[in-house]
Fold this protein.
Amino acid sequence: MEAQTGGGTQNKEQFRKVLGSTLEHNLFYMPSFKIYGGVARLYDYGPTGAAIKANLQHFWRQHFVLEDNMLEVGSVLCAARCCGSSRPVCMH
């Protein structure tokens, strides 16, 4: 990213940090296993975040599945890098 004049890049970074801490403080999301020190790159939804996610899924289904007659397919995706292994380890 190119450096911007007037501290624009600094302001964006500061805004991102403030927004992230505010969302975490208000339990939109939180680091997984936070009471045990947390796990890098893994997050859980808090009550508010879970409600927002449910509403987004409801509106998505309403539009695409019910109004456009598309099929809904569910799956679980697991990134090997995220799981700490070079081979698939997620069980269904």
